[in-house]
Amino acid sequence: MNCFVVMRRRLTAVLSSKTASKSLVFHVTNRLAESQYGNSYSELPAIRSHARTISSSTPRCKKDALPPRPSIPEDEIEEVFIKGGGKGGQKINKTNSKVQLRHIPTGLVVSSQATRSREQNRKLARRELAEELEFLQDPENSRRGQKIKQLQKKKAQQRKKAIRRDKERRGLEPVEELEAIESGAGEDTSAGSDPTFGEDTDMKDSAELGFKFDLIKGKHNKGGDGGDSIN
Amino acid sequence: MRLRPGIITRAWRESSNLAQLVPEVRTIESARSELRWITEYVHEKMTDRASKGMKVSESDLQSKISHLCYLRGQKGFPLQYLLGSQPFGDSLDIKCRRGVLIPRWETEEWGIKIAQAIRRSHPFFTAGAREGVDQLSAETGSEMTVSETRSPTFKVLDLCTGTGCLALLFAEQLRPPMGKSVYVEGVDISQNAVELARRNRAINAGVFEQYGTSVVFTYADIFALDISSDHFDIIIANPPYVSEEHYYSCRHTTRSVRRFEPKHALLGGIDFYRKIFQLAREGAVPAVVCEVADQWQVDEIVEECIDDELEATRMSDSAGTVRTVIAWRKESSAWII
Known about the structure:
The complex is a heterodimer. Helices cover 38% and strands 10% of the residues of chain A. Chain A is built from six helices and five strands; from the N terminus they run ββααβββαααα. Chain B has two domains: 5-76, no CATH class; 98-329, Rossmann fold. Helix content of chain B is 47%, strand content 16%. Chain B is built from 14 helices and nine strands. Chain B has helices spanning 7-14, 16-25, 28-51, 58-75, 79-83, 105-121, 123-133, 135-139, 165-173, 191-208, 244-247, 255-260, 270-282, 295-305, and strands spanning 85-88, 92-95, 153-159, 181-188, 214-219, 234-237, 287-291, 310-316, 322-329. In chain B, α2 packs parallel to α4. Chain A: It comes from Lipomyces kononenkoae.
């Protein structure tokens, strides 16, 4: 006998990068199933804070290869259909392709409306569900956990580079002074929120997503990115 | 469904484009998705233009996005006609244009289910797996009946093909076993549709050509068609099935469909099904799968078209509406679960 819903916590991990458009838009709702997994779910805040760093990039070097994609057996998944009403078929042309999956043993619900194709959304939702479960069970070694580590490392490297570039841009400063500043500043970059850094990493993210955003680089897009409500 | 009060005001707070979309898409969530897709599309187009050396400005971009939102939200222009395409199946990109019916998600859903059922359980495809393991037993034709292995080509006939989406979907999903091939023919009475289907075949050829699958589109009227010497293994169809009463009723057919999509692809019914089943009889086709409007239409079809030689069943879509009728000759192996 299973004991489910002990505590309900609504987790809206809207995984969208600042570039918004090409991102995967997911909704994760978590209902705790204590008995089955015995997790304290202290990892949940971690998911929220790292939500924005996740992009659908492929590993660049073999030596940094991520663990393989997890999968879930079909009989554990229930597809919930949000009834649109009406007759459907030829009489209606619905562009809403939202797919919602529920993992029966844990009660975890994932919905996806990333693409205009229902079939592709189904695949994406299944992938997301599997990754989410793997992450909850074993954050360190899961595919998502490894990806987060990689991105953190990369961001730290980019920040260091950006500091250096910024200093060069500002003018010729004596090399010794530069090094002293750098060693002190290097530690603080993780807490920093310099807008230029953000822009650089966004460019990198969007490059990873394979989406060219040259045209609106650096400009605040008012009506353009409807999917991004984080700004 | 009615628009929730204050919804447009709420949408305005996010963006004017979003607010423009709401009257057609009805919810803010849908509006956000559509705005995202419109924005992506416009960016892609502008990037293309820029790479070709044409001048593109930020205001061009914004005004294009606004214009599309206006057409979509205020005029009810179908999104697929505005963006010119609809993703279909696993990786198909089906181009759409005025005059040809837009592929629906229900069609995609049953198409995939049926194609996968065939791939999983039809003797033509399952026998192939055994052949790979033991060539000798395949030569002696151990467990297979002769009639099921008579031809190394699995032939699919897609009637009223429109954009060619079902034909291309089956070509994508029905990967043939080694030494065998798949042939899909799509037929439509509209030259506009056949041209579009051929264009879609060219665009998506990479998906199935590598397996030796061939897809052909023919311009023909199904009421004057003769397939008696073609030996098709299955007929699939999404024929016009909306009744006149439902077509003109706002409760059944949306304004956008009535205003923008081709009438001749929608108005139809039992006459089409009767003809389809007659073709199946004449051509000795062992299986027929058709999209339908609802349970009542299935009842009508079963009464008029299903004779003693056939077995029939129905299948619902994931919205719970009866969406497909499946019929097969009693003596052929029932690969349908």
